[in-house]
Amino acid sequence: MLASLHVKNLALIDEEEIIFSKGLNILSGETGAGKSIILGALHLSLGDKASKDFLRDADSEAFVEAVYLINDESTKEALREMGVEPYDDEVIMSRRITESRAVGKINGEQVPAAKMKEVGALLLDIYGQKEHQSLLNTKRHMELLDEFAKNEIGDLKDKIAESYKNYKALTAELEEAKQSDVSKEREIVLLEHEINEIESANLKVGEDEELEDEYKRLSNFSRTMEYFGRAHEAMAGDGGVSDAISSAISDIRYIESIDDRASEFLSMLNDADSIISDFNRELSSYMSDASFDAGRFNEVELRLNEINRLKDKYGTTIEAVLEELAARQEKKAKFESFDEYLAELKHKVDVATKELDDLCQKLSDIRRKCAAELSKKMQEAMSDLNFLNSEFEMHLTKLDHYTADGFDSGEFMICTNPGEPLRPLKDIASGGEMSRIMLAIKTVLASGGGIDTLIFDEIDAGISGRTAQAVSEKLSTVADKHQVICITHLPQIAAMADTHFLIEKNVEQGHTISGIKKLYDNDTIEELARMLGGSAITEAVLTNAREMKELANSYKNKA
Question: What would the mean pLDDT of 495-514 be, rounded to a whole number?
Answer without folding.
Answer: 84
